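Why should sequence recovery work at all? Because a backbone constrains its sequence more than one might expect. Tight turns favour small or flexible residues, buried strands favour hydrophobic ones, and helices have their own preferences. The token representation captures these environments compactly. In the example below, the structure is given first.
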């Protein structure tokens, strides 16, 4: 990195206003002036049109999001002490979750919304999984690794890299996915609200488990007593375990992946000592959810529909809205009278408003009526401070009328 001059930017007016309001993404075409080419991971200082200091961001030369803001406001020195402070802030935000007890699996740092653009840290018991989504962290990895170890004191640490970073990480920085330092287990067992789960920390999707649904799962537990439950897109059975502990008579996991279903079974086995979980009959169906829901003739008292992101890009948004409608229309058609639907979406490109509107259309088209029991967004360990970071929304509807 050039020590001779700081990387300095000025932005076009709209981008300047957006940054001032707290939006952390600066696209390449929003940059009006730049004093020199910057390198990956370099700090870029953003000045406003009157040449006053405005913000500091991480520079990423090959990304359309060229700079991601990490600090806005008065001038600061961003050094190891500063990063340590941000990690400590993140740790403080989670104190309530940990103090409640029974939870050793949670998100510790949630990327851009906590000043760590494209960096996620998930904790599974004594293992931390750090996942990098932006190349800006590659040159900073050694520094971050030592700060993360210092602040969170994990026994094991796993590095995960988004697919687009893997080649550069390996060729230029000698970084590969996997345990860093002492090698731990492939499957790490942790607790969420007292339920035991395994997470495939090195090979699993994301960091091995979907920690963002913890609160919705707890809500499902409270709705499950005496009910026959269908968990569509079950993955490793997260919602199902809670339903079983909540007194469901029967729980069916539906997923296209044999691997996910095997993990769901393993998770049920991990909780055999619980007084309630073993009482629920656990079934697994490996199928495409769209097809299976269409052909199903049975009825369920509680159905969870939590698909993977159906719109990974903006241009997939319309198709995703259609797909959510189809899925939830089919699911609602399988509800017994008095049955409950829990519908979730993790597509950032489909807004919460759009999602709730499509669910309204689903209810209207069903010919019956539904009562809303709750709506939810992000939990405290998944803070979202700007619109693109708000990806998760869920709604619970109880079927009250005839269909
Ligand atoms: N609800 C889960 C997370 C879902 S992740 C939880 O609480 O942890 C999405 C899951 O959908 C994955 O397990 C994936 O295998 C599954 N999946 C993707 N496409 C599918 C399809 N067409 N039919 C059924 N399952 C599918």
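From this structural description, the recovered sequence reads:
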């Amino acid at each position: 990195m050039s020590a001779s001059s700081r990387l300095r930017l000025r932005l076009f007016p709209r981008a300047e206003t957006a940054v001032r309001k707290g939006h952390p993404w600066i696209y390449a075409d929003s940059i009006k002036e730049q004093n020199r080419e910057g390198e990956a991971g370099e700090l870029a200082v953003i000045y406003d049109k009157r040449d006053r200091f405005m913000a500091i961001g991480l520079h990423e030369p090959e990304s359309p999001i060229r700079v991601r803001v990490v600090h806005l406001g008065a001038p600061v020195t961003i050094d190891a002490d500063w990063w340590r402070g941000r990690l400590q802030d993140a740790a403080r935000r989670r104190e309530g979750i940990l103090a409640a007890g029974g939870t050793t699996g949670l998100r510790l740092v949630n990327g851009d919304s906590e000043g760590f653009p494209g960096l996620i840290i998930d904790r599974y018991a004594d293992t931390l999984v750090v996942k990098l989504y932006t190349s800006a962290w590659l040159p900073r990895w050694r520094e971050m690794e030592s700060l993360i170890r210092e602040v969170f004191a994990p026994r094991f640490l796993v590095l995960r890299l988004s697919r687009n970073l893997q080649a550069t990480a390996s060729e230029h920085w000698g970084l590969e996915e996997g345990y860093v330092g002492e090698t731990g287990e492939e499957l790490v067992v942790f607790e969420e609200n007292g339920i035991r789960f395994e997470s495939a920390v090195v090979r699993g999707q994301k960091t091995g488990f979907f920690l963002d649904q913890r609160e919705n799962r707890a809500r499902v537990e409270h709705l499950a007593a005496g009910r026959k439950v269908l968990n569509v897109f079950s993955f490793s059975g997260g919602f199902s375990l809670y339903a079983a502990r909540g007194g469901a008579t029967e729980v069916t996991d539906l997923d296209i992946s044999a691997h996910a279903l095997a993990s769901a079974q393993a998770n049920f086995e991990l909780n055999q000592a619980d007084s309630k979980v073993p009482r629920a009959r656990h079934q697994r169906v490996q199928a495409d959810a769209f097809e299976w829901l269409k052909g199903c003739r049975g009825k369920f008292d509680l159905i969870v529909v939590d698909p993977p992101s159906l719109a990974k890009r903006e241009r997939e948004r319309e198709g995703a809205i259609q797909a959510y409608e189809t899925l939830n229309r089919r699911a609602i058609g399988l509800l017994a009278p008095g049955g409950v639907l829990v519908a979730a979406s993790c597509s950032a490109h489909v807004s919460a408003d759009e999602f709730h509107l499509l669910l309204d259309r689903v209810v209207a088209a069903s010919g019956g009526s539904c009562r809303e029991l709750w709506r939810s967004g992000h939990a405290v360990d998944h803070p979202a401070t700007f619109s693109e970071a708000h990806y998760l929304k869920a709604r619970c509807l109880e079927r009250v009328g005839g269909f």
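A few observations help interpret the result. The longest strand covers residues 335-345.
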